[in-house]
Amino acid sequence: MRTSFHPRLINDPFLDPGLFIAFSHRRRALLFDLGDLHALAPRDLLKVSHVFVTHAHMDHFIGFDFLLRTLLGRDKEVHLFGPPEFFDRVEGKLAGYTWNLAEEYEHALRLRVTEVWPEKLRTRTYCCRDRFKAGGAQEEAPFDGALLEEPSFRLEAALLDHRIPCLGVALVESFSINIRKQSLEDLDLPVGPWLTRFKRALHEQKPPGEGFDVTWEEGGRIIKEKHFILGELARKIACISPGQKIAYISDMVGRPDNLEKAERLIRNADSLYIEAPFLDRDRERAEEKYHLTAKQSGTLARKAGAKRLTLFHFSPRYARMGRELEREAMEAFKR
Ligand SMILES: [Zn+2]
Ligand SMILES: [Zn+2]
């Protein structure tokens, strides 16, 4: 299945957790968790529009500074989501620096920060020009399981138990649009930026009878255009297929009610990224630390009907034993 989203783990499974999801044909990306981000190029970080921090343990949040450092001075708004008390964590980070020069920056970075509570979303905005001052107005909205809804996808979340509330997240793509190259050639249409505009029009479910201009561009300038009817053009060149679901679970205890909650969130995921810090022979230790074992992760993935399983967040105690963690999870997954 081809997709509009390209997820990749940021680090080796023994290093800090984190998933980077790039959008096809768009300068945009999502980030799940803010662990060590040095493996991401600045051009990748600059694409990030929304960040979902599962919880603020250091291995999931230490990258906040690196992200901020990269974005500072840009005309950009980045939205961060986190569990209850996330404002305190973000404000603590922001209070750690001196911002006397920030109001002189030509471009003003804004951080929108949302705390996810069982039934509520609370949002505050922090502006670079105001020296990221805390305590501004707070917005409130009901939380019905979705953190973000856009024409092409929705972002679902659940609060899981990791001795503290911890977010599990799933990106659910509405449907995906693939362009038939051959059809473009048959119609003598160029490949170009108009395709992004075209896909967006379909995702936004613009009326099929609406007009649409295909443009020929050179050096950013339109040199020719041709008029079409959106729906007719779609029938000729687009192949529309169901969207992907990409789920991410990091840091949760493997107790029955918690597993059931996670299972509901990740049901039928095409790609599941899930922690597997411990071997099942150390299950007691895993429970003490409020983490899953590889076997629990594999079993959860199978029960939820996930199609692909990727493991991460291996405990350093299993250095050079990554294969064993993989084997244990995959055995439970494929059983
Ligand atoms: Zn943790
Ligand atoms: Zn962790």
Protein topology:
Layout: E1 5-9, E2 19-23, E3 29-32, H1 42-45, E4 48-52, H2 58-61, H3 64-71, E5 77-82, H4 86-94, E6 110-116, E7 120-127, E8 138-142, E9 146-149, E10 153-161, E11 165-173, E12 175-179, H5 181-186, H6 194-203, E13 211-218, E14 221-229, H7 230-237, E15 238-242, E16 245-249, H8 256-266, E17 271-275, H9 283-288, H10 294-303, E18 308-312, H11 322-334
Parallel strand pairs: 3-4, 4-5, 5-6, 16-17, 17-18
Antiparallel strand pairs: 1-2, 2-3, 6-7, 7-8, 9-10, 10-11, 11-16, 12-15, 13-14
One zinc ion binds near residues 55, 57, 162 and 251.
Structural write-up:
Helix 10 runs parallel beside helix 11. Strand 13 (211-218) and strand 14 (221-229) form a beta hairpin. This protein has helices at 42-45, 58-61, 64-71, 86-94, 181-186, 194-203, 230-237, 256-266, 283-288, 294-303, 322-334, and strands at residues 5-9, 19-23, 29-32, 48-52, 77-82, 110-116, 120-127, 138-142, 146-149, 153-161, 165-173, 175-179, 211-218, 221-229, 238-242, 245-249, 271-275, 308-312. The chain has 11 helices and 18 strands. The radius of gyration is 22 Å and the shape is globular. The protein binds zinc ion (2 copies). The site of one zinc ion has 6 residues, from helix 2. Residues 17, 57, 59-60, 251, 313 line the site of one zinc ion (ZN).
Short description:
By secondary structure, this protein is of the alpha/beta class. The chain has helices at 42-45, 58-61, 64-71, 86-94, 181-186, 194-203, 230-237, 256-266, 283-288, 294-303, 322-334; strands spanning 5-9, 19-23, 29-32, 48-52, 77-82, 110-116, 120-127, 138-142, 146-149, 153-161, 165-173, 175-179, 211-218, 221-229, 238-242, 245-249, 271-275, 308-312.
